[in-house]
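Q: Could you predict the 3D structure of Alpha-methylacyl-CoA racemase?
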Amino acid sequence: MGPLQGVRVVEFAGLGPGPFCGMLLADLGADVVRIDRRGARGGMLGSLGATSLLDRGKRSIALDLKDPADVEVVRALVERADVLLEGFRPGVMERLGLGPDDLLALKPSLVYGRMTGWGQTGPLASTAGHDIGYIALTGALGATGRPDERPAPPMNLLGDFGGGGVFLALGALAALLHARTTGEGQVVDAAIVDGTAVLTTMIHGMLDAGVWRDRRGVNLLDTGAPFYDVYRCADGRFLAVGALEEQFYAALLDGLGVAGDETLPDRNDPRQWPALRERFTDLFAARTRDEWWAEFSGTDACVAPVWSLLEATRDEHIRERRVFTEVDGVVQPDVAPRFSATPGSVGTVPAPGQHSDEIRAELGL
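A: Sure. Here are the predicted structure tokens for Alpha-methylacyl-CoA racemase:
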């Protein structure tokens, strides 16, 4: 089930953003066949691949891409596919005889999705990298964190998944619409540096308008403003405050018990932000996180508890929305976005090569 039911995807197994893109398509109903290398996946991160939730809802076939017979299996899969996803360094697929020219000649309507960190071209294209380096090069990492501390990488969410996997999925679906309209396939070059830069578009607009300083931790949305920050409570836990608009700020002051207090520093004067933050710091430190949440829950103060990953799965709103689901005893995020007519569903995680015989039979091999 799902809006992509009937769409066939071939995904070359990898790590991070490529499998995440395949997961999104599988969640939405696409038939995703993951090509695993014969033998166990190695390396510090590769060892996690066999149980990675990013592989949910897919089928898996194990092949040796150095074996000409198995390369023919790949070509047979491509002939019936709509989308191909690969995340190798530039030139690898071409050397295997599976590059865009080879496979678009075989299937002219194919969407050939390529996931890399640096892109297919440029001085760094052939070099290794990881999320932290990609977001560093785009300026996104340098803009994240406190002004007097080292930049703080937001795990690998910003680059790998936000700037990488989501943009590959968007590009693949756009190219798929084009292919179904014109019969012409194309190559989607999804580079994490490109996508991450696009995510900073609004900030660049603010820079150009002179309302953002090119320094982290001193601006409206990067914890520079005391009414858009995180505060420690009496129990050592934290609350997130995002009371940007006047009416939300008024609700914040009301919940804090300081509405009408004329001694509060002016929030509209950045020079007074340090003094205002000090007042807020003292106020929030007087009660526990849960006590404050009981005070602010259901109000327009734009205050939220900072849950841990496990705490988030037990939140009342999160549970009501069924943001998380459980499959085979594993709690995990559910399908997003939601569709009323043909809802997607979370599938199980296949072992490497689990469906090899089944898929070969479908191909008549």
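Q: Anything worth pointing out?
A: Residues 8-199+335-363 form a domain with the Rossmann fold fold (CATH 3.40.50.10540).
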